[in-house]
Amino acid sequence: MLKLGVIGYGKRISGVIQHELRRLEPDARVVAVVDPDEAGARSRLAECDQSDVVFYDTVEEMVRKAKLDAVLVGTRCNLHAPYGIEMARYDLPLFLEKPVAISMEQAVGLERAFENSRCEVVVSFPLRVSPLCCLARQYLAEGAVGTPEHILAVNYVPYGTVYWDAGYRNFEITQGLFLQKATHDFDYMAFLMDSPIVRVAAMASWGRVFGGKKPAGLTCGQCDEAETCLESPRNRRRNLSGGTQADHPCTFGEDCGSPETGMNEDSSSALVEFASGAKGVYTQVFYARRDAATRGATVSGYLGTVSFDWYTNELKRVRHHAPFSDTVKGGQGLGHFGGDTALMENFLDVLRGRAHSRTPIQTGIQSVYACLAAKESAETGRFVDVRQIG
Q1: Is residue 9 situated within a structural domain?
Q2: pLDDT in tens, 322-370
Q3: What count of Cα atoms within 13 Å lies in the side-chain half-sphere of residue 158?
Q4: Whole-angstrom distance, CA of residue 309 vs CA of residue 294
Q5: What DSSP state is assigned to residue 178?
Q6: Which helix (H) or strand (E) holds 385?
Q7: Contact between 302 and 314 (Cβ < 8 Å)
Q8: In angstroms, rounded to a whole number, what is the distance separating the alpha carbons of residues 113 and 121?
Q9: Could you tell me if residue 209 is inside a domain?
């Protein structure tokens, strides 16, 4: 039996364990949890874990008593770094959710904690290890575009209302959507270009779509505009526009924050420069719906162009100097486009000593440094150099 400890047994980490890890390793058991909301955590535990699990008050007590094979961190985002820093003291494989930090202080602290740590980390970056991204990287490594000179990456998020009608609206926890969303994308962009991002210029829009002056604490069930509001459960259900169809906090409420006090952005974009000298553009949009969903990249060089989209699960290669183009179609129905499965396969290999992490802690920290630079650039209107690991 594989004995797992979990710090913060939330929806995301419970889904990864039950739908991905346990499919690969049916004998895996959650035997130890650190979570102040014991009732909520127990409600998410699988039936096979209910009888053996022990709840602990501290990580130190859990690690000392539970004799674990590995630990997974699935807390809210502002706690990823503190618990990651604490786990760096132990020689246990660690699965750490992204973003691994939400501030420069946290990121630097995490980097220092792991400088001499024996704890091997698998950061939750499923896009980097998804089959489609890996195929694109293979094509690039084989010279499909020659030297990669430019990358265009886009993310039109069809479920973006979650950042205003759920706990993610809390800016103190998210620190904006570069850190929440672009941390994935900056990571896979650097992976594809085989070079870290060193400079960023960014812009963002706040409060033009979501947020507003509706009273704090207002929910759809209390609102006299629910019949006409496009974000009410009734209209989301009728229009097939996505998002929760349960009663939820108002997406136009003052408790979404403000541009002055801090809030998630409706959309944001960044110009990026890589250490190789190549350049790129990234854009993320959070009010898109339905078939507007798109997420992927186009990489170009003198010899060709390689592009892919995870939503269509297709990759296209164009040869610039020959009359041939190829399109590859992938399979459907995979969590995070197949990346979650690949992450859990790697995590199991790491804890058994068969492989090293494909998404080590350094990738998580470097992505945070790029996201923090983008956030600063959007707020100040200037180019910002990206801190580098080491």
Answers
A1: yes
A2: 999 999 998 765 556 889 999 999 999 999 999 999 999 999 999 999 9
A3: 12
A4: 6
A5: I
A6: strand 384-385
A7: no
A8: 12
A9: no
Number of domains in the chain: 3
Residues shown for the chain: 390
DSSP SS3 for 364:
helix
Q: Which residues of 248-269 are buried (b: 16+ CB within 10 A; e: fewer)?
A: bbbbbbbbbbeeeeebbbbbbb
| Beta-strand relationship, 279-285 and 294-300 | unpaired
Looking at the fold, whether 325 and 225 belong to one and the same domain comes out as no
95 inside domain: yes
Residues 267, 145: one domain? yes
- For residues 348-376, one letter each, b for 16 or more C-beta atoms within 10 angstroms of the residue's C-beta and e for the rest, the string is bbbbeeeeebbbbbebbbbbbbbbbbbbb
Asked if 14 and 71 sit in the same domain, the reply is yes
Q: Most confidently modeled of 11-20, 280-289, 324-333?
A: 280-289
220: left (phi over 0), alpha (psi -120 to 50) or beta: alpha
- In sign, the C-alpha dihedral spanning 325, 330, 336, 341 is negative
Vertex 197: Cα angle to 192 and 198 (nearest 5) = 155
Range of the domain at 307: 128-202+262-332+361-385
Please state, rounded to an integer, the average pLDDT across all residues of the chain. Answer: 96
Amino acid at 245: Q
Do both 32 and 153 map to the same domain? no
Whole-number Å distance between alpha carbons of 279 and 210: 31
Cβ atoms within 10 Å, residue 296: 24
The per-residue pLDDT for 155 is 98
Q: How far apart are CA 171 and CA 195, in angstroms?
A: 30
